[in-house]
Inverse folding.
């Protein structure tokens, strides 16, 4: 039994840290977040060169063929640098969904270009009810066409195609297809753009039914938790550095136990979220019977912990933490967006209750 | 990363499982609810049997009667013990803390004299550390010892001593040099509890029972060959004991917590709350799920800490969060039980209406001590702040 990273996993993680720190430092994050789409083609090409867009997909498709653990290590490091743009949407959301639901031909058609860096993509699930419970979805296909509005679709503006989950299945829409209207939603987190996507009798290609959707969303949720862990770790690091340097009453504020204990709790919450994320990824990779529970435990815990870590970090910074100039609010806003994405803690606690108290089947339709 | 058991671990588990199937006592359920005073001889006998199978201290080196088990094998050991609902071992402190300290610091003569009887539970051990005026600030302890000929003469008082009432021997920390800074003048002595001048008094705690004792030492004579480690190096010896305390304890506790949450979930399906089973109450579902999840995270944190320790040879920083995590979680778990049972939660074992013979009212009170014993939550957070995060010392 070994719950540490293997040599090659550690290498991948170290390289990813160097890559994101070098190619997308905070000045670049701040520049990109002020752009319309937060997408940079040059940065994208470099990530493709590293194999990041194909990390999870088979070598036949042009991918690297690694597992869920490697995917989340990459996401953790992306989250640490607050990477803007559609890497998460393309790989962890759309790519994973196609990989789980699509036929071999469909995978070739959609995952091939993702691995090769020619296409970006995203997934549209939420509607006006904003429920992650698939039985709450209203939009239904009609003769291979969709009509209705999807909300909170990340990076839709730069996605070449959009994977749409409806009441009756999983579909792919070309972003340029007739009847699609994409409008930005004004959200707190400027590093991950959100859109409303309206379909009006839009032709779509059906990938499959809903059976495998829960599994795909579980992989995405775990990748998101890893990204949150990266953000928490960075928030902790920034805060500890500040507590060592900032002086009040003649001493570094980190000398005071009230401040130390905030930092200790940030550490506890970050490490616990990391343990849960790593285990969930391994459970998905191994298809263990408890993988759905493991994912919900991770997302439940991280959804609350990421917010609390942000709160504590800003509190330790005092007035400085409340400024635009300080980076903490950027992590804080991403944490808030991630908290509700793919189900908040209340949602996942209820899902755990269904699986553990009601003992309902592990991969229920309710993601 | 691979959380499946490897071949060696599977072999260890299978051998243990086969041994337990044959040897684990079948009548433990008749004893487990009885006071420890009554069941103690039973637990001693069980530990002797484990020792005969070389299962009493799997973490100890082979040459001292253990199996040199890896941390993962130790986790497997406790999991299997819990799975088959084996009784606990009588000499818990001797096996978990004091034996390993003697192995690390003792002379060959001391090891030969003490180790076999710790394993067989022939001699039960207690720990004389805390004092009325030295709790978190252990190094300020005042119990003093001075040399007269070949003996140390001890005077002072210890408190919060588990197993004091039944112990044959005590690992005692005393001040041997009051002139030097407080950490530098301490020595650890191995004290025969039957020595003249040792008095053991029960310390009644808020649960009503006396799990702990106060120890009084009046001119107690201890031969100088019973110094453990070096004279005036007692702080390092004592810290090493405390490190063992914070080591694998979490792995054992996880199984207890798991049993408790499983029981609560089972009860929630029938226990009525606001006119329906608690399991249907949306808030209760949220709380049970939260607790279930945190217990799983506690297990995962422990496994990660073990892997880290195995890989680096030193306990990883993850280990320091375990004490805070389990103690605060245990209190939350008991509070959820109280909310579920409503007024029935307060009933003690004396009342036939009590849920599960009153274990939940007892548990609610007993867990109140969890964030204080074995290093308060405040001290644990100081440790993380300074030793893990590198913040300046606050005291």
């Amino acid at each position: 039994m070994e719950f540490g990273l293997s040599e090659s996993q550690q290498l991948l993680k170290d390289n990813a840290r160097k890559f994101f720190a070098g190619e997308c430092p905070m000045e670049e994050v701040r520049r990109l977040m002020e752009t319309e789409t937060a997408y940079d083609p040059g940065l994208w090409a470099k990530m493709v060169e590293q194999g990041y867009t194909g990390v999870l997909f088979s070598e036949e498709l042009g991918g690297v063929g690694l597992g869920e653990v490697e995917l989340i290590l990459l996401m953790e490091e992306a989250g640490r640098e607050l990477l803007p743009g559609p890497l998460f949407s393309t790989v962890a959301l759309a790519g994973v969904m196609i990989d789980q639901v699509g036929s071999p031909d469909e995978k070739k058609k959609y995952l091939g270009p993702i691995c090769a860096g020619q296409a970006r993509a995203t997934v549209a699930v939420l509607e006006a009810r904003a429920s992650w419970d698939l039985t709450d979805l209203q939009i239904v296909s009609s003769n291979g066409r969709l009509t209705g509005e999807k909300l909170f679709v990340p990076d839709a503006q730069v996605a070449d195609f959009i994977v749409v989950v409806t009441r009756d299945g999983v579909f792919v829409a070309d972003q340029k297809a007739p009847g699609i209207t994409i409008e930005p939603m004004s959200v707190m987190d400027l590093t991950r753009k959100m859109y409303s996507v309206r379909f009006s009798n839009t032709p779509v290609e059906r990938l499959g039914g809903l059976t495998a959707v829960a599994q795909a969303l579980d992989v995405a949720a775990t990748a998101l938790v890893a990204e949150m862990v990266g953000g928490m770790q960075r928030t902790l690091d920034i805060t500890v550095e500040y507590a060592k340097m900032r002086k009040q009453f003649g001493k570094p504020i980190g000398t005071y136990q009230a401040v130390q204990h905030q930092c200790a709790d940030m550490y506890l919450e970050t490490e616990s979220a990391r343990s849960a994320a790593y285990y969930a990824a391994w459970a998905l990779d191994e298809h263990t019977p408890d993988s759905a529970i493991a994912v919900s435990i991770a997302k439940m815990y991280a959804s609350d912990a990421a917010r609390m870590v942000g709160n504590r970090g800003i509190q330790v910074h005092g007035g400085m933490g409340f400024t635009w100039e300080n980076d903490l609010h950027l992590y804080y806003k991403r944490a808030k967006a991630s908290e509700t994405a793919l189900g908040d803690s209340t949602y996942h606690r209820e899902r755990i209750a269904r699986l553990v108290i009601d003992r309902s089947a592990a991969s229920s339709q309710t993601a | 990363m691979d959380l499946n058991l490897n071949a060696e671990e599977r072999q260890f588990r299978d051998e243990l499982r086969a041994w337990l199937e044959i040897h684990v006592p079948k009548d433990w359920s008749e004893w487990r609810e009885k006071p420890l005073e009554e069941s103690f001889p039973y637990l001693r006998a069980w530990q002797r049997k484990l020792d005969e199978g070389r299962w009493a201290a799997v973490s100890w080196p082979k040459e001292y009667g253990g199996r040199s088990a890896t941390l993962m094998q130790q986790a497997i050991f406790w999991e299997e013990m819990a799975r088959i609902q084996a009784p606990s071992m009588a000499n818990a402190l001797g096996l978990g803390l004091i034996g390993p300290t003697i192995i690390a610091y003792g002379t060959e003569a001391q090891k030969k004299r003490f180790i076999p009887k710790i394993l067989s539970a022939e001699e039960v051990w207690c720990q004389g550390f805390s004092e009325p005026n030295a709790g978190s600030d252990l190094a300020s302890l005042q119990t003093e010892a001075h040399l007269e000929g070949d003996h140390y003469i001890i005077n002072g008082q210890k408190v919060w001593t588990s197993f004091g009432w039944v112990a044959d021997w005590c690992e005692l920390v005393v001040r041997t040099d009051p002139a030097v800074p407080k950490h530098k003048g301490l020595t650890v002595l191995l004290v025969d509890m039957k020595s003249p001048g040792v008095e053991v008094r029960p310390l009644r705690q808020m649960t009503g029972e006396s799990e702990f004792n106060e120890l009084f030492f009046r001119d107690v004579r201890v031969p100088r060959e019973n110094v453990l480690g070096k004279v005036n190096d007692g702080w390092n010896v004592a810290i090493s004991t405390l490190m063992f305390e914070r080591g694998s304890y979490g792995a054992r506790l996880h199984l207890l917590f798991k049993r408790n949450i499983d029981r609560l979930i089972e009860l929630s399906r029938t226990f009525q709350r606001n006119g329906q089973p608690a399991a249907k109450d949306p808030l209760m579902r949220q709380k049970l799920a939260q607790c279930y999840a945190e217990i799983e995270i506690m297990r995962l944190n422990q496994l990660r800490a073990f892997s880290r320790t195995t890989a680096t040879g030193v306990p990883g920083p993850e280990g320091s969060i375990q004490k805070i995590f389990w103690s605060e979680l245990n209190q939350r778990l008991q509070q959820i039980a109280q909310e579920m049972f409503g007024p029935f939660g307060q009933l003690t074992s004396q009342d036939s209406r009590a849920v599960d013979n009153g274990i939940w009212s007892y548990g609610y009170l007993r867990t109140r001590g969890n964030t204080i014993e074995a290093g308060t939550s405040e001290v644990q957070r100081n440790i993380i702040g300074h030793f893990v995060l590198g913040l300046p010392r606050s005291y």
About this structure: The beta strands of chain A are 121-124, 145-154, 161-166, 169-174, 180-185, 194-203, 205-208, 247-248, 251-252. The longest helix of chain A spans residues 213-245.
